[in-house]
Structure prediction request, 93 residues.
Amino acid sequence: MDAEQLRKVWGKFCENNDFVLNPDKAHVDTIIEGVLINEKKFGLKLCPCRLRDGTREKDIELICPCNFKTHSTWLKPVEGRGGMCWCGLFVRK
Ligand code: SF4
Prediction:
């Protein structure tokens, strides 16, 4: 999967949800690049913003998109900014 395909898949994931892809395209591009590098290295599309501990169990939790609605950045957004996943890839509508 290349960068544009991944962007499309994530765009589809946002449909009919209460979040969208971050409108900052450069930010999304950086995350896409990190995820694809992780896929090359580890065989999984892992979050580029969080550290893995090397166990398969933990890695699975870091597959993007993760369960980001449990993140403090989603639940308790900083004033002036809506909720978002830890990396700011998905942001509240
Ligand atoms: S924090 Fe965001 S970028 Fe990282 S895995 Fe979760 S959804 Fe993907």
